[in-house]
Every structure is written in structure tokens, then in C-alpha cells.
Amino acid sequence: MADDIDLKRRExxxxxxxxxxxxxxxxxxxxxxxxKAGEKKVSPxxxxxxxxxxTGSRGMFHLNVIKKVPEALLxxxxxxxxxxxxxxASLAGKGVNTYSRYEDLLNDKAVDAVIIATPPHxxxxxxxxxxxxxxxxxxxxxxxxxxxxxxAMVKAQKETGLCFQVGHQRMFSxxxxxxxxxxxxGRIGRITQIRAFWHRNNNWRKPVPSWDLDRKINWRLYLDxxxxxxxxLASHHIQVAxxxxxxxxxxxxxxxxxxYWKDGREVYDNVNTVYHYPNDVHLIYDSxxxxxxxxxxxxxxxxxxxxxxxxxxxxxxxxxxxxxxxxLVEDTEKKIFSTLPLGGASWVPDHSVDTKGxxxxxxxxxDENILxxxxxxxxxxxxxxxxxxxREGYYASIACxxxxxxxxxxxxxxxxxxxxxxxVYGS
Length: 427
Hints:
Blueprint: H1 2-20, E1 48-53, H2 57-66, E2 72-78, H3 82-92, E3 97-99, H4 102-106, E4 113-116, H5 123-132, E5 136-139, H6 147-160, E6 164-166, H7 174-184, E7 191-198, H8 214-217, H9 229-245, E8 251-257, E9 270-276, E10 282-288, E11 296-302, E12 305-308, E13 313-316, H10 324-337, E14 358-359, H11 368-382, H12 387-409, E15 413-414, H13 421-426
Parallel strand pairs: 1-2, 1-4, 2-3, 4-5, 5-6, 7-10
Antiparallel strand pairs: 7-11, 8-9, 8-15, 9-10, 11-12, 12-13, 13-14
Helix pairs in contact: 5-6, 6-12, 9-12
């Protein structure tokens, strides 16, 4: 079983290694160079000791990812909710230290780096403390629910020089990287708009043993802990938009409401935002939890084509000519319908491009979370934090908060100069 996992991972690293050699991706994904050394086997003594802070669903996910990365060694777990900590400890097995306070885990000398998978309201506090304790940090997105925390986290990394990543695994996805290369090659022309949505049809709640634990377990629904759909879901799509466009938005407008789940939650269950970028491109993002028909998608739209990332397909605006038989059918249909009085001279219907598209990649990609952790470990071993990765995570987090604030205040929220990464990182 372990050999199978290692074989699949090496094949995945091989595919990424090919992408990392692309001149077109050198400036847009320089962090891929960290993966080139990941194909080499490592001795058990050189493994990086990892502590997970927060052992809920996402923390448990990271626990399983660690098992698939030979360079990583799980040495400690922390959670202030005993049932979560006990479940994680059971899965981790013997030899893993457990703590109820993150401060105690940070004092554990076996811990070289931490993965922070707590609610985002304490991401900033724990990240800064971890850096001051000499630990490298991989923090789940979004970085925080407060602008000032995002800034403090970046400054703490700069002061210590330790490695830092934010959990945006799409930056390591073979699918997203190949699609980005297509964009750089001009396959979809000039990007004019990005449409993104993430829909569900459930109340986003987890069962609780007693109502007094609701806010602790269902923290995503309460403003003291989260910004709901924006920080938990939209953050991924906003990061991709920033990345593909090579810039952050300069302002955002939006509307949010609680229009379906009247259950005491404080975060919106229906959000709509429009981000404007300096090159006049728009990112339109919406999300709701009362209809799953359209599910999850991000559409990169250019004047020559569209990339639909979750489908993994490229659609061209000007497809190849159809076969002679298909052309005959289309010509016949046009002749028939052109005689029907559908509207006046100014009413000419535009139809969507009806093609099946072509696949972006010709292989089944493995979990990009494995690649993200591999790159994180390699950056630690090389003592080379990726400033570009920090920038991507920071800009995505700031933009998420802008979107939430635009909805909460019903006003346009503009980017502030004081948020510029170079100003924060250089100050």
C-alpha cells in the first residue's frame, strides 16, 4: 500500500516537474521549483516534524495527507474540544503527543512546523505565536477575519524568515497549472471576465451533542469566528482569479442576505459579489446553500475561448467546422427558422457556443494537497520560504474580507494602499 502511494506520488511529481520547466509559468508559479527535489527519497531522520492545531474535519484531512508524504512526520496534535482530539489521536496512532493548548504544542521540541486548521478568527494569533516559537506555518485559508491580522501574519514571517503557506492547494493543481499555461499561450485570448460560483443545498450544519456547543462546532455560521461563504468557499475562487489575472481587485460591490436558513446563523446564506480589477476585468462570484443545481465552477472567459476548471475543459469561441452531414442539418434548420417572425430587425438571438470542448489535461490528477505539503516540506528543508505563495494567500484573504464588508455595509469597498503586499512586507 505504501509503495503504491509512493509510486503515484512520484508520477505526479514528474508531471509537475514538466510544468515547472515551462518558461510561461516561471513568473506565475515559481513555487513549483520547490517540488523538483521532491522526487528524491529521504531518510527517516531527515523528516520534518509536523503538529496539527485544530483537529476538526479539515485537521483530520491534513492528518491523512501527512501519511502520504514521506518527508513529513506527524508528531503532535492539539484541540480544545476533547472528542475531536481523541478521534485524531486514534487515527494518528502511537507516538503522537496531544495537547489542549496550542502554546504547549509550540513548546514541543519535536515540532518543526505546524498546520493550523482552527476557525479563522484565531489564525492570526496562532500564526504569529508559532513564528515567534521558531515554527514554520501552513495555515488554512482564509488567513483571518480581520485585515490587521493578515498584515501581522505577513510581518511576523518577514521578521523570522520562516516558511509560510496559506491553504490554497489549487496553486499546485496540475489542472489549474496547465490551464494557466493555456492562458499564457493565448488559447482563450484576452481574459475579459471570470465567473465563479459554489452552491450547495444543505444547512451547512454539523450535529452537536448539546446546544451550548453549537457555536464551537458550527463556527462557520457565526461572525465571531468566520465570514461564512466568503472566507470558507469564495477564498479559493478569488485566489485563482487574482493568480490568473496577475493582480488584486481594486474595488468590490456586493449583496448578501439570509434568505432561506432562518436558524439563528449570522453569516449570509446567499452572496453575490462583483470584483473589479485594474485592467477592467470583472470577477463575478455568487454562492448559496439552498440550490445545488449548478454546483461548483470557475469559468475563465476570454474573447477566443472559455476554461471551465471543475469540468477541466477548454471551449473555443470559434470551433472547427462541423462535418458535412452536420453542416447540412444546421443549414436546413437555419433556412426553416429564418422564415419565422421571431422578432423585429433589431432582435437577433445569440446562442451559446455548443461544443463539447477539449480536456485541459490528458491524465487523472492526484490530490494537489499532497503537492502542497510536499512543497512546504521542501521549502523548510531548503530554508527557502516562497514570498510569491505568501503574496497569493494574503491578497486572496484581503479580497475575501473586502467582499464581505461590501455586502455588510451595502457600500463599494475600495482597495487601500496600506494593504499592498510590498508595502506590508517591506515595512
